[in-house]
Specification:
The complex is a heterodimer. Chain A is α+β, with helices and mostly antiparallel strands. Chain A has two helices and ten strands. Chain A is globular and about 55 Å long. The two termini of chain A are 24 Å apart. In chain B, strands 3-4-2-5-6-7-9-10-8 form a nine-stranded mixed beta sheet, with helices on both faces. Helix content of chain B is 34%, strand content 21%. Classes of the chains: A alpha+beta, B alpha/beta. Chains A and B meet through β2 of A and α7 and α8 of B.
């Protein structure tokens, strides 16, 4: 049985023109061969358990962490820019005090996906491995509360209304 | 509570480049006086009573000025520091001149008050703060009928607050300095609050209370177990003091972030494209909203200052293009009052 969801007009996806991925207010580009940014949640939304006699309890985990792994070519300006942000953040942390705010935002103008955080904390730095051809560099940043309900947008522009 | 007489919730913010070199300190208030000399300094910041006493002994602070500064540091929930600024009253200067001196010197402060009780002086200072829209002014009044007739021009002022107090004491400054002394980026302190060390008012009856409240004039009275408490704490237009702190905080932090972003772009050799007339939701608008607006809204949300916000992108107009403006709007639902504040931000490219 067909549904209206199967009959929609083909949508366009465009990483370059349709997505704005910015860190510290600067738009990133020069992404990897296939990957640009991948996201990983700290935990699932909820966790279920069942008692010995079959009583199911579901717990809200309240874990709104997200990790974003940014992949860019070692030859890109964004690689140098992001590395600079990472260095500056580390130096600031070593100097003591609060972690300086660094904003991250990803907006897909076409389908409405959105991830945003006013705090981006570098967790994993890339290595400077050299091979025969140009390689990719990956930075993993923690977005502490980006997965909080209401902060993300999932395909909001795909709706008919 | 009286209905605000000026109920426009729209605030137009022009985000110009900030002149402050560092993040603005929005936790300190300044008290102006027309006879202090401050030893020739434009202003001085005091963190201790002994510092104030020393300058009083050196005749660099007037007795009134010293008493006002000391009262603020001695009152309940005192701020970490207070600023003294002087103007030459005998030479024709007024409190508005003192306010301007602080601005010219790029001093970081949020609250402003004066020891002067002349209506003309208060009018001038209030007008200066109202025009600047980045500070809050608190003045003393002894008029039991509400806002004094001589100050009627201030009736709609959003950045001025009047406090009725009979004794010649700097209660308005102490209250303002106390309420603004909390870190606005970390917490949401409401406007009403305790004070201490002041002389109780004797003429406030129900008739006077009604008159004062009608004109949004605050006053000190016993409240619960607090013997001295300034309640209401509205600006003359009827906005809560904490609401105006949120407005100023939002604008200040957006301006700082936009400026930092502008400098970054300059350093890395990049630029934002304003776009063309008729465009909407441009990359520049998205980027600016993501860097200069949304992070600030998140902080306001987390501190409980606002309960919701919605960012929208206006259509780029011919004026935007000719002025190199990048417009971003945000509707903010303010906590405590529930009012919606619309910020029309024009980032000057």
């Amino acid at each position: 049985m067909s549904t209206t969801f199967e009959l929609q007009v083909a949508q366009v996806y465009d990483l370059r023109h349709g997505n704005v991925i910015q860190l510290g207010g600067v738009r990133l580009g020069g992404f990897g061969e296939t990957a640009a940014v991948s996201y990983e949640y700290g935990s699932d939304l909820m966790e279920d358990m069942v008692s010995a006699d079959g009583f199911v309890t579901v717990s809200n985990l309240n874990d709104y962490r997200m990790r974003a792994t940014l992949t860019m070519m070692e030859t890109s300006r964004s690689y140098a820019y992001v590395a600079g942000l990472m260095t500056a953040q580390q130096l600031a942390i070593r100097a003591g005090g609060a972690i300086p705010l660094l904003s991250y935002q990803h907006t897909d103008k076409l389908n409405g996906d959105k991830v945003s955080s006013n705090q981006a904390i570098f967790l994993i730095r890339p290595s400077q491995t050299k091979e025969r051809t140009a390689g990719e560099r990956e930075f993993t940043i923690l977005l502490p509360y980006a997965a909080d309900i209401g902060k993300q947008a999932f395909g909001v522009k795909n709706l008919l209304r | 509570m009286a209905t605000p007489t000026h109920d426009s919730s729209n605030v137009v913010i022009n985000i110009f480049l900030a002149t402050l070199a560092s993040v603005a300190n929005l936790r300190v208030s300044a008290l102006a006086d027309g006879t202090s000399t401050l030893g020739g300094d434009t202003y001085r910041e005091y963190t201790t009573l002994s510092g104030i006493a020393a300058d009083l002994a050196a005749a660099e602070l007037s007795a009134t000025h010293a008493a006002g500064l000391s009262a603020a540091l001695s009152s309940s929930n005192p701020p970490r520091s207070v600023i003294a600024v002087a103007y030459d009253k005998a030479g024709g200067e007024d409190s508005a001149d003192a306010f301007q001196k602080l601005l010219t010197a790029n001093v970081s402060f949020l609250g402003f008050s004066t020891t002067d009780v002349d209506s003309a002086d208060i009018l001038a200072a209030g007008a200066a703060v109202e025009a600047d829209k980045k500070h809050l002014f608190s003045f003393r009044t002894t008029d039991t009928s509400g806002l004094p007739a001589a100050l009627s021009a201030m009736a709609d002022y959003e950045y001025s607050m009047g406090v009725y107090h009979e004794a010649t004491e700097q209660l308005p400054f102490a209250h303002l300095a106390s309420r603004l002394g909390y870190d606005p980026d970390a917490t949401f302190a409401m406007g009403p609050g305790r004070v201490s060390g002041f002389t109780a008012n004797t003429s406030i009856d129900e008739t006077v209370k009604t008159a004062l409240k009608t004109d949004n004039i605050s006053f000190m009275a016993a409240y619960g177990t607090a013997s001295q408490f300034v309640s209401d704490a509205y600006t003359l237009s009827g906005r809560g003091l904490e609401e105006m702190v949120t407005v100023i905080l939002a604008e200040t932090r957006m301006r700082e972030r936009a400026t930092a972003m502008y400098l970054t772009y300059s350093d890395i050799g990049a630029a934002l494209d304003v776009g063309s007339e008729g465009d909407q939701g441009t990359d520049a608008q998205i980027i600016l909203a993501g860097e200069a607006v949304e992070p600030v809204m998140e902080i306001l949300l987390r501190t409980g200052r606002i309960s919701a916000y919605e960012i929208t992108f206006p259509v780029i107009t011919a004026t935007d293009v000719s002025n190199a403006n990048i417009p971003v709007n945000v509707d903010i639902t303010l906590a405590r009052s529930g009012r919606v504040l619309t910020v029309n931000a024009y980032f000057h490219n």
